[in-house]
Amino acid sequence: MSAITRAEVVHLARLARLDLPDDALTHYAEQLDAILDAVAMVSEVAADDVPATSHPVPLTNVFRDDTNQPCLARAEVLAQAPAAEDGRFRVPRILDDEEPA
Amino acid sequence: MSTLVDYDDALSRYEPVIGLEVHVELGTASKMFCGCPTTFGGQPNTQVCPVCLGLPGSLPVVNRAAIESTIRMGLALNCDIASWCRFARKNYFYPDMPKDYQISQYDEPLCTDGYLDVSVPTPDGEVQVVRVGIERVHMEEDTGKLTHTGGATGRIHGADYSLVDYNRAGIPLVEIVTKPVTGTGALAPMVARAYVTALRDIMRSLGVSDVRMEEGSLRCDANLSLAPPGEPWGTRTETKNVNSLRSVERSVTFEIRRQAAVLDGGGTITQETRHFHEDDGSTTPGRSKEEAEDYRYFPEPDLLPVAPDPVWVDELRGTLPELPAVRRARLQQEWGISDFDMDSVINAGALGLVETTIAAGADQAAARKWWLGELARTAKERGVDLADLGVTPVQVARVAELVAAGTLNDKLARQVLEGVAAGEGEPDAVIAARGLVLVSDDDALLAALDEAIAANQDAVAKIQEGKVQAAGAIIGAVMKATRGQADAARVRELLLERLGA
Ligand SMILES: [Zn+2]
User: Fold this and answer.
1) Which ipTM did the prediction report?
2) What is the extent of the structural domain holding A12?
3) Residue B420: phi, psi to the nearest 5?
4) Which residues of chain A neighbour B36 with C-beta distances below 8 Å?
5) Vertex A75, ends A73 and A77: CA angle to 5°?
6) How far is the CA of B30 from the centre of ligand 1 (A)?
7) Residue A21 within a domain
8) Which pLDDT does position B288 carry in this prediction?
9) Domain coordinates of chain B in residue numbers?
């Protein structure tokens, strides 16, 4: 019914920042196909009168009051990071390419 | 450097279409989905918790006050309020969000289909009202702040690495998107500026945000496209982070001139994000949108839908203040003053001050005169806003009352206000301490007058020949002798009596 192509797997892998080896693409395409087939079976059971749901519980308007709660200690927070500097998280260079002219 | 076409030439060949996306940080005490404080300027990464750091196992909960503020904003912008909507997860990889996604709204915004009327001055001195359609008002969370290190200019290109502060991540952010605004021609840059100004004033009157552009609590992206009249709309560019009212106007003007040059040369406009430069008012290309961003939005599984009850929405409607444009029109009519005079009051930031001064008993002309004259000058000298000068409307009303009663003249009144602004106390205390009382006692005035007459025989001769305007010299001498404290009108009467003129 569904047919995920290798090209689509490449695109999804890029969006998820996954570096998939070439020989894995067919393997994942088949797996994704199987997942979509399973989802399609649900669509067959659910008729048009069954609205799509995104949440398993029938609740709305779950809010909290606008009050402050204690924050974490910065030293503890930054201790979880691979690198920190000047009280901030240090992350690798974001853009590799040179600025366009 | 871009080639530019003369502005009027560009407008003679092309019709601009503008669109504005404004982000407003809400002034709630806590963040959108957690209890961290939202105060500006804290030490980096001291206002963070497991939720806004996206730590495993943490769950967001929606801040009721943020929803209420957004609904009130929507109502003030004449929007429909959704009866049911959801948050959506916007996926992207960029270190400004620790979760690797931003919670936003996608195809189910909380408020839709509104408008805001803005007034712009036309070149012939008229005021034109332009209706700017509002496409949507939706909620999202702000991102963290990046500092780029290394490289030449602290910019992302050429940086060696970046540092991240997540204090701002998760602060409630409301995005207001206009419909395309057409038919404004050469007024387009002014309309863009007037819209952002009007939006800022509404947010301020609602009390939902401090809307400080310089601190980033109001940020604007300006979209612009050009097309020959009657042709389909052209390709648009989006100029990001235009962060002052003046820059909004300048960036739109620049894009009109730049795009016209590209089109004149037979080129095509690239759909792209551009950056605005405050120093020379230019824009330069940023990330190209050739590779369409694929955010893979999906309903946020960690948050339940928001379904505002109509009764709740009506309650919130009841909390809306008189909106700025309505208030201005009402006050202008009550005071009976011209558009020009009203603009002067507004531009001086004196509207509320003048209104309160009148409420405290002053007449409108006096209230405007003191706030826009002596007090505006003092505020400018000190580099502070009028409201922060330390002079209250009640004090100004008292000075106006003393002038009206003839106890002070304008010169003395200025000295009294100067004293009040210098922290010397209430007007009556300044008058007592400085001895600022108008001398209208005839005996005291006559003594000074006789001396002035004796010293100005030329003027006396002229007055006696019927040249009454020569009285100015003698009155001036009396004012000087009394250090400005004489009642000039009474001096004139006494002089003419004395000379039998
Ligand atoms: Zn937090």
Assistant:
1) 0.87
2) 6-45
3) -65, -45
4) 68-69, 71
5) 70
6) 8
7) yes
8) 56
9) 1-26+215-296, 27-179+204-208, 324-434, 442-499
The whole-number pLDDT of residue B86 equals 96
Residues 6+ apart with CB under 8 A from A31: none
Dump pLDDT digits (tens) for B428-482: 999 888 888 777 777 778 888 888 888 888 888 888 888 878 888 888 888 888 8
Q: Is there a contact between A62 and B63 if contact means CB atoms under 8 Å apart?
A: no
B131 CB neighbour count, 10 Å cutoff = 11
Distance A63 CA to ligand 1 centre (A): 15
Distance of CA B321 to the CA centre of its chain: 18
R_g of chain B, CA atoms, integer Å: 30
- Spatial contact of B211 and B200, defined as CB atoms under 8 Å apart: yes
Q: Is B207 near chain A, with CB under 8 Å? A: no
> B191 near B132, Cβ under 8 Å?
yes
Whether residues A74 and B46 touch (CB distance < 8 A) is answered with yes
Residue A23: CA atoms inside 13 Å, Cβ hemisphere, count?
0
Q: How far apart are the CA of B201 and the nearest CA of chain A, in angstroms?
A: 24
> By the CB < 8 Å criterion, does A58 face chain B?
no
Domain count, chain A: 1
- Chain B positions in Cβ-Cβ contact with residue A68 (cut-off 8 Å): 29-30, 35-37
Q: Tokens 């490289």 sit at which residue?
A: B151
Class of domain B442-499: mainly alpha
Retrieve residue B419's tokens.
């004293």
In this prediction the pTM is: 0.81
B61 CB neighbours in chain A (<8 A) are 62-64
**With contacts defined as CB-CB under 8 Å, which chain B residues touch A91?**
95, 161-164
Compute the distance from residue B355 Cα to the ligand 1 centre, in Å: 42
Helix (H) or strand (E) holding B131: strand B127-141
Q: Which residue in A57, A61, A87 is closest to B306 by CB distance?
A: A61
CATH number of the structural domain spanning residue A31: 1.10.20
Residue B355: count of CB within 10 angstroms of its CB: 18
Token reading at B314: 């009506």
pLDDT tens, residue by residue, A59-68:
999 999 999 9
Q: Is residue A33 part of a domain?
A: yes
Give the residue on A whose Cα is nearest the Cα of B67. Answer: A63
Does residue A17 form part of some domain?
Answer: yes
Q: What is the DSSP letter of B39?
A: -
- Asked whether residue A83 is assigned to any structural domain, the reply reads no
Contact A66 B66 (CB under 8 A): yes
